[in-house]
Design a protein that fits this description.
- The chain is an alpha/beta fold.
- The protein is built from 23 helices and 20 strands.
- It has a 7-stranded mixed β-sheet. The chain has a 6-stranded mixed β-sheet with strand order 2-3-1-4-5-6, sandwiched between helices.
């Protein structure tokens, strides 16, 4: 059993805060949790307008939760604009909690409705409407704190938090401790007021008998035993890199330019100077990746982060990293596009740019994360590939993963896979004649058995060398315009990427081992696609699901799995980019796409219907 709650209100109403506190309180109570922040790109739209509505969706339940949920069972609307903007995200019979103090004739008219007919116009007839005087209850609850009206009204979100926690009998202790830690020392009156508002909300829920219908109250068993904390995708990426730096013994450097929604990675890394992390907020995207390339040449685990048009700006320097065989990780947190596009909405439309968006034949590794917690594992794996195989890697996440949260089981770095960069000294290479030219100088393109260029860190005596963007001789690294050398280097670059397939686990197929339909997904859509396919398989359909995590080179087992099914259906929030790529690299004759370009997560029921229609093969 699971429930979806959506908190909605003006951008200044604190919906992101209340959503985070509710989700973390639920996680501490043992529930599985997955969140979905949904906020506008505007800095601050006019108060009470639909354009300024900010939302936060929480999907929680007594089992493991793998996605942000579909339509909400509980919708909290702090004003008429929030109700108008987010009614479409609620079920037909949802419980809708309104701040009745905010539903005045003028406020309703401001969003183009009439107070007498808004219920009919928004099809609220079957909904359970809870008209709670949230504003007045908040003022009454915090009166003893002595705050002025403006400051007191900022506690409304905490009263809403108390109501929703009370509805599901979830302890408010975590939320109260958070408030005390945030405000207690600097402003004890604000701390006192917010805690009072939480308690007033709890009391209102219990006294009004607001109880989540048919909801299992205990989340025991939703998570395996271990130490957990709530984590979002950007945090997970940052921590994955920190763990990889620790495991590899390489210093971590991040050179980036702030851009929504990738900025959180740079911000998180900047907090950890005590762990040896170095960060540079560059003047632009090009400077960001170029500083990272310089750090890579200097011997660091180098990363750069971006979103949207930032990946295009980094393309020339990324080609240099391919040519010079530099270990580098580029994280692209995908958002809606093109151009400035939809900065706060999520898409998967950068896949082909990541694959081919550079001049010349310039192949590189492309990895994809599929959940906030998985962002840690993929960041670690991207770093391992880059460092061990001396090549750039693009890690694709997206806005839903970056800002969404879920419980993450804390890992011990010592238990993670080893990372062994091919760093060498003159003494270690002394017996390898091919590593030196006739004058005894180091050949910078000499390689080990994995075709990884030996990493001669500047300062290593006897291994002085130069690297650049011009085409090279395959071993000596000398500039070469020879067609034979260019062809040889082109084949070598491609083979180096292909060999990475052996570093990533074979794809797992869940459901039928063969049959009518194989459904493939990648990125943040995986949880919903998996649920839809599992439901159909349980009903007897010969259908299976697989998650593509390594796109280039194509993950081992994907092509073989496709061959065992009559039709392949790829679900992705773009125009069908992965489906197009698979048509070019596999021999399967029937590859189709569920391609959604609405910059919103899939809906499980709609996916089931689409998948079902593809089971009727003709």
């Amino acid at each position: 059993m699971s429930t979806v709650i959506r908190f909605s209100g003006d951008s200044g109403d604190g919906m992101q805060m209340v959503g985070n506190l509710f989700s973390e309180s639920a996680a501490f109570a043992g529930y599985g949790v997955f969140t979905f922040p949904d906020y506008p790109a505007e800095v601050r739209a006019p108060q009470g307008t639909v354009a300024g509505v900010s939302g936060f969706q929480v999907h929680f339940g007594s089992q493991a939760i793998t996605h942000q949920g579909d339509k909400c069972d509980i919708l909290v609307a702090m004003n008429p604009a929030a109700l108008v903007a987010h009614r479409k995200y609620a079920t037909a019979t949802a419980t809708i909690i309104l701040d009745s103090d905010g539903f005045t004739k003028d406020a309703v008219a401001k969003v183009g409705y009439d107070i007498e007919t808004i219920s009919e116009q928004l099809n609220l007839g079957e909904c359970n409407i809870v008209e709670a005087p949230i504003t007045q209850m908040t003022l009454d609850a915090v009166v003893e704190s002595g705050l002025d009206r403006k400051a007191a009204l900022k506690c409304r979100n905490m009263l809403v938090l108390g109501i929703t926690l009370g509805m599901y009998d979830i302890s408010a202790d975590y939320a109260k401790k958070f408030v005390e830690k945030k405000f207690g020392k600097k402003n004890p009156l604000v701390s006192q007021a917010n805690i009072a508002a939480i308690e007033a909300g709890e009391n209102y829920a219990r006294n009004s008998h607001l109880v989540g219908e048919n909801h299992e109250r205990k989340g025991e068993g939703a998570l395996a035993k271990g130490v957990y904390r709530s984590i979002n995708g950007n945090q997970a990426v940052a921590w994955g890199f920190i763990a990889a730096a620790e495991r590899s013994g390489r210093p971590l450097f991040c050179g980036s330019y702030p851009i929504t929604p990738a900025t959180g990675i740079l911000e998180e890394l900047a907090k950890h100077k005590a762990l040896g992390v170095k960060t540079v907020q560059a003047e632009d995207e090009i400077a960001g990746i170029c500083t990272a390339i310089g750090a890579s040449f200097g011997g660091a685990l180098a990363v750069t982060t971006t979103s949207g048009p930032g990946l295009a700006l980094k393309s020339e320097a990324l080609g240099l990293a391919v040519m010079a065989q530099m270990p580098l990780v580029v994280v692209d947190v995908q958002r809606g596009g093109p151009s400035t596009g939809l900065p706060t909405k999520s898409e998967q439309a950068d896949l082909l740019q990541a694959m081919y968006g550079r001049n010349g034949d310039s192949p590189l590794v492309v990895l994809s994360a599929h959940s906030p917690a998985d962002c840690f594992d993929k960041a670690y794996m991207a770093a391992k590939i880059a460092l061990e195989r001396m090549m750039p890697v693009v890690l694709l996440t997206d806005g839903n993963l970056a800002n969404g949260t879920e419980p993450w089981r804390v890992k011990r770095v010592a238990e993670m896979p080893t990372i062994t960069p091919p760093i060498v000294s003159r003494e270690e290479l002394a017996a390898k004649a091919e590593c030196f030219n006739e004058r005894g100088l180091f050949n910078p393109y000499s390689m080990n058995e994995n075709l990884a260029r030996y990493w001669a860190v500047p300062g290593a005596e006897g291994l002085e060398h130069r690297l650049g963007g011009l085409e090279k001789h395959p071993v000596t690294g000398a500039i070469s315009y020879s067609p034979e050398d260019h062809a040889a280097m082109g084949k070598l670059r491609a083979e180096r990427v292909e060999r990475v397939a052996d570093m990533v686990a074979e794809v797992e197929v869940v459901g039928a081992s063969e049959g009518d339909l194989l459904v493939l997904s990648w990125g943040s859509n995986v949880g919903k696609v998996s649920e839809a396919v599992a439901a159909l398989h349980a009903e007897g359909a010969k259908v299976a699901h697989a998650t593509v995590e390594l796109v280039n080179p194509l993950q081992r087992g994907v092509a073989e799995a496709m061959a065992r099914f009559k039709r392949v259906l790829v679900c992705e929030t773009n125009s069908g980019q992965l489906a197009s790529y698979l048509r070019s690299v596999t021999r399967h004759e029937d590859i189709r796409a569920v391609a959604d370009m609405g910059a919103q997560p899939f809906v499980v029921d709609a996916l089931k219907a689409e998948i079902s229609s593809n089971l009727n093969l003709k």
